[in-house]
Design a protein that fits this description.
Elements (H helix, E strand, L loop, with lengths): L17 H24 L4 H10 L3 E2 L6 E2 L1 H6 L2 H11 L1
Antiparallel strand pairs: 1-2
Helix pairs in contact: 1-4
Length: 89
């Protein structure tokens, strides 16, 4: 008999407790705060801002913290939010 060992997919964290969900929520908030800090410090042409948000890695992956464009940063935690809201009710 053989066993397959699967690594946890960091994009879909396993949340079995409220504490697990709160930990992932805290990670997402931290990454959002880091991106917001960058946005507040941006001081250039508005079209350059839009370019950077979409095409450059000025954002952060919500779960790993790796560099990521902001559009993807906004899209990635969507499935998490609904599970988090369910865990809070």
């Amino acid at each position: 008999m053989s066993f397959i060992i699967c690594e946890m997919d960091h994009r879909r964290p396993v949340m079995q407790t409220i504490a697990d969900a709160e930990h992932v929520h805290a990670q997402i908030l931290d990454r959002a705060a880091r991106t917001a800090t960058w946005l507040r410090s941006f001081d250039a042409d508005p079209m350059m801002l839009l370019r950077k948000l979409r095409l450059e890695t000025v954002g952060h992956d919500p779960l790993t913290g790796a560099p990521l464009n902001v559009v993807e940063q906004l899209n990635r935690p969507s499935p998490f939010w609904s599970r988090f809201a369910q865990s809070r009710s």
